[in-house]
UniProtKB/TrEMBL annotation:
This is FP protein C-terminal domain-containing protein. InterPro entries: FP_C, Transposase_22. Residues 21-83 form a coiled coil. Residues 195-246 form the FP protein C-terminal domain. It comes from Loxostege sticticalis (Beet webworm moth). It holds the Pfam family Baculo_FP_2nd. The keyword Magnesium does not apply. Keywords: Coiled coil.
Length: 246
């Protein structure tokens, strides 16, 4: 009887252990199932992340390509602007700008120019040497009472260069010297610069003064600077060329 009880007890114990093992097996199966689901979810999210990364790479490449296009367009615009500035100066290549001549109603500008030529000792025939002469307003000049300069367009650029050279010798000339009695207005003569070149000339003068350059001048509508009479001449043709003044 005692043996039967022991056997029954062991059987019950084994049955309990078997039940526990089954529960553990079920838990393991659940864990495996959960892990499988997590793995599937992770793979899905990883695929989604990879797709996002691919999309980002594509967009970055597009932006980089766009950046190159923008730089190329900026370069082309810069070239076009420089070409436009050259053309604007080119059409003024035969012009002389005369400043300081008082304005009068009914004035004869050709006669005034002829008086200047005679005073400088230059042989000038207005009918054959001059295309036209006119007054022009100075751009961005807020002083409306300021005398408008005279622009003289010569028929020949070479004649213009010779005439301007002759006029510039009269460094201390006043309007009264050619009949404008009572006027002490100083008269001076320049190449007729485009708006861009006037801007560059102003910048060049400022920077040349800052860097102790001795010379800054215009010849044949070209701006030039020179540190000393033994230094090389620097031509200022674009805003970037101002960086050569060091």
């Amino acid at each position: 009887m005692k043996l039967l009880n022991e056997i029954s007890s062991k059987v019950s114990h084994m049955q309990a252990e078997m039940s526990a093992i089954k529960i553990i097996q079920q838990d393991l199966q659940q864990v495996r199932s959960d892990i499988s689901e997590l793995k599937a979810t992770f793979n899905t999210k990883l695929d989604h992340l990879n797709n996002r990364m691919d999309d980002i790479d594509t967009r970055v490449s597009a932006v980089e390509h766009l950046g190159k296009d923008v730089e190329e367009l900026k370069s082309q615009v810069k070239e076009l602007l420089n070409e436009r500035y050259k053309n604007e100066q080119w059409v003024r290549r035969s012009n002389i700008q005369i400043n300081g001549i008082p304005e009068k109603a009914g004035e004869n500008l050709l006669k005034i120019v002829k008086s200047l030529a005679d005073h400088s000792g230059f042989s000038l025939n207005p009918e054959s040497d001059i295309d036209f002469a006119t007054r022009v307003a100075v751009k961005n000049d807020t002083d409306q009472k300021k005398t408008k300069p005279i622009i003289v367009k010569m028929q020949s650029r070479y004649k213009k260069d010779d005439f301007l050279s002759s006029l510039r010798k009269m460094k201390h000339m006043k309007a009264s010297d050619i009949g404008f009695l009572g006027s002490d207005s100083r008269v001076y003569f320049n190449d007729h610069l485009s708006a861009q070149n006037k801007y560059l000339l102003q910048k060049a003068k400022i920077k040349a003064k800052e860097k102790n350059y001795a010379f800054c001048w215009v010849r044949n509508c070209t701006i030039m600077v020179r540190k000393s009479d033994k230094s090389p001449v620097i031509h200022i043709t674009t805003e970037e060329s101002l960086n050569k003044i060091v």
